[in-house]
Amino acid sequence: MKRAGAPVDDFSQDAWLEPWRGVFVERGERITGIVREIGGNLADFAQGHKHFGLHRRADGWWVYRDWAPNATALVLVGDFSDWQERGEFFAQAQGSGCWELVLPSEALQHGQHYRLKMHWPGGQGERLPAWGRRVVQDPTTNIFSAQVWEEIPHVWKNTTPANCLPPIIYEAHVGMSSEAAGIATWSEFREHMLPRIVGAGYNTLQLMAVQEHPYYGSFGYHVGSFFAPSSRFGTPNELKELVDAAHGMGLRVIMDLVHSHAVRNAVEGISHYDGTPYQFFHDGERGYHEVWDSRCFDYAKPQVRHFLLSNIRYWLEEYQFDGFRFDGVTSMLYRDHGFGAGFGGYGDYFHGRTDEDAIDYLTLATRLMDEWKPQSMAIAEDVSGMPGLCAPRKQGGCGFHYRLAMGVPDMWFKCVEDMREEDWLMGWMWGELTNRRADERIISYVESHDQAMVGGKSFLFAMADASIYNGMGKTSGDLRAERAVALHKMARLATLGTAGHGYLNFMGNEFGHPEWIDFPREGNGWSYQHARRQWSLRDREDLRYKGVGDFDGAMMQLLREPKWFDAKPEHVSEHNDDKTLAWKRGDLLFILNFHGTQSFRDWPVWVESGVWQLVLDTDAAQFGGHDRVAADQRFTVAAENGNFGKLLLYAPSYTGLVLRKVL
């Protein structure tokens, strides 16, 4: 499938990789061998969710199947058995570690709670079913149980929007999407948030924390039940209704997929599922992620690949998701999870620190997505810049469609938190904004959820500090808040204006949401104060937030066009003393003045001769600015040197301007 955005180079033409071409050949050969071993068809292989777990058969009887090779007995206990082990609920061993239980139709009823009682040599314990599709938490005891669940099947009304637009991604957490102090639902998000997202100009919704996780404060990254949508937010059908409605409004919907690790809980997860620590994970120290306090999958095991690949097809098929942001890819790629030596040259990627089994799994994952749903997108969260991550599989690459440009937010936060403004180097800034492998498609962003997690701050808050509380009124006269608002708009314009193939924003940051993110926990008195979004700030006419949000909408309206994204950004000029930076992209010219006190009259920039018109101004009055440049004005540039001439314009301090060549 052809994907929008600036063209990418051929990975095979990177001469600096020649010493390691054999590595990529070996990877390709391994994938060919794995696919051959499973019968040649990944989509057929990745159907474990249709076999394992609890299902109603065509004849009305129930069947439960599981894989627990160390178990000596497996029995369902629940409401239907008074939580006691009863003979009729014992599964029978089927060989190869598999178990099966068949029950008459009246044995189980919709809504009943249950767990597995697993016996193994020397012990026993209760477990949630690994393939369970519905897991709920008792509000009184806080104990998690699986639930027999038979909803009337959702009838899908809409399909994935048929477009190849560059992904303009709105990253969202359903639970914290409401202003109320509590947990929002799938239905509330569908009703209240989808119109906001579409109205703001985004074309792709990224949902976080979809997979069930025992601890709400983990932000959904310590997954316990991989096939169960989080019941905190509602029922499975209500999630399907959300995705369906989003498709009907022109949004593609992707989800955060956590296959990089799993929660270490034994009862609420799969950490010691059959009594061993190594059923799904590496044995010994390698099976534990010390930094994340979680478990690390053993991707070499066929059963683990079967489990995870089936999980991919399940979400694509059952819930009609359009792709995934693969979380923690850097941690998967390296045995030291990327925390060891840095990446100063190509040799740092090829000296034995890579986890080749994980690379095989990721390659199989993108291949499955392309085979099962060709229009889906696979985005890698990788900060290491591993060569080949987004390269075609036929060239030994992993086949990801996009990689997150994680260095860009690092650059912006370094500027405002660690550097003096006078030390900002325009060439360094340009380099960070456009630093990408020529053979990769990149998603750029100023900030995601990461930067604002407890201990961090949103980008606006990092600049405004205490002024966020008393300086955000339009008439406050607070210079610190004024600076923060101006630079917030400029950073977003610079990032989207140089973005390679897509752009991402976290929910609420489009209007500069204040403070930080902190989920209810003992340390904050179980407060929801910072686990919500204050939409009333965005809508108030007397606050600066409205101008910030309105600018973001205008920027999206101008810059989301696929034709514009097809062009590469071309550097025009930079000046460190003046703090000015200019570049051209397609028929648009970007001029940014980061100087805090100096405005420049008749500021010169060499461009193609013709007529240029101002189409966007961060300093415009409707965006909360000083309105120092007349709107819609045109500039006629006479040819002086070939087809180029000097465009002279007023470049106010802390302002970004965009001009379009109209004649």
- At CATH's second level, what is the architecture of the largest domain? Alpha-Beta Barrel
General form:
globular
What structural class should be given to the helix and strand makeup? Answer: alpha/beta
The largest beta-sheet arranges its strands as: 10-11-14-18-19-20-21-22
What can you tell me about this protein's structure?
The protein has 663 residues and is an alpha/beta fold. It folds into three domains: 11-18 and 156-563, Glycosidases (TIM Barrel); 48-147, Immunoglobulins (Immunoglobulin-like, Sandwich); 568-661, Immunoglobulin-like, CATH 2.60.40.1180. The chain is 25% helix and 22% strand. The chain contains 16 helices and 30 strands. The strands form seven sheets. Strands 10-11-14-18-19-20-21-22 form an eight-stranded parallel barrel. Strands 23-24-25-30-27-28 form a six-stranded antiparallel sheet. Strands 3, 6, 7, 8 and 9 form a five-stranded antiparallel sheet that branches. A hairpin with a 4-residue loop joins strand 23 (570-575) and strand 24 (580-585). Helix 6 packs parallel to helix 8. It is globular and about 90 Å long. The mean pLDDT is 95.
